[in-house]
């Protein structure tokens, strides 16, 4: 069941309505590009989700989390009877590594990406907002890399990353692990 469906971001709709009618400053144009990119990533990932039985999961799109330290958008959360899965979508290009602070960084430009940090913050904070019946469930995080050119250096652990070619096998795996159990009666 979809608990919160994917919708057009309100800020994106607002900026698109202004585009062509008003002059947008550099900050607004950058925000517009980021929001359009996020929307395209979500549309693309939604196509992958169509291949699994969504009756096995509750789905939450565009979960915004804020605390004193971080503002994070987790694009998709799937909740099953046995686990919670957090997906942060991106389309980073080129070679990356995890720096000494545990942050994903581009190998050449040193541009830092906060996906892992955001996923971990939400993972450890989400228990405080969960209903008691879900607090025993393990939470799995995935930094989903949708660009074909994304790669990690040889010394970086691939654990939280889900590469484009791994998305379907991973979703099939969690779909199999989370099939609802059907009781059958045995007649004698």
Q: How does this model look, in words?
A:
The strands form two sheets. The chain has a six-stranded mixed β-sheet. A four-stranded mixed β-sheet has the order 7-6-5-9, with no helix packed on it. 30% of the residues lie in helices and 26% in strands. The protein has helices spanning 10-18, 26-49, 115-126, 167-177, and strands at residues 2-4, 58-66, 71-79, 84-90, 95-98, 104-106, 112-113, 139-145, 151-152, 161-163. It contains four helices and ten strands. The longest helix is centred in the first third of the chain and has 24 residues, at 26-49. It is of the alpha/beta class. The model is unreliable at 181-188 (pLDDT under 50).
Tally of alpha and pi helices: 4
Largest sheet: 6 strands, mixed
Coarse morphology: globular
Q: Radius of gyration from the CA trace?
A: 19 Å
Key terms for this structure?
single chain; disordered C terminus; 4-stranded mixed sheet; 4 helices
Quick take:
The protein has helices spanning 10-18, 26-49, 115-126, 167-177; strands at 2-4, 58-66, 71-79, 84-90, 95-98, 104-106, 112-113, 139-145, 151-152, 161-163.
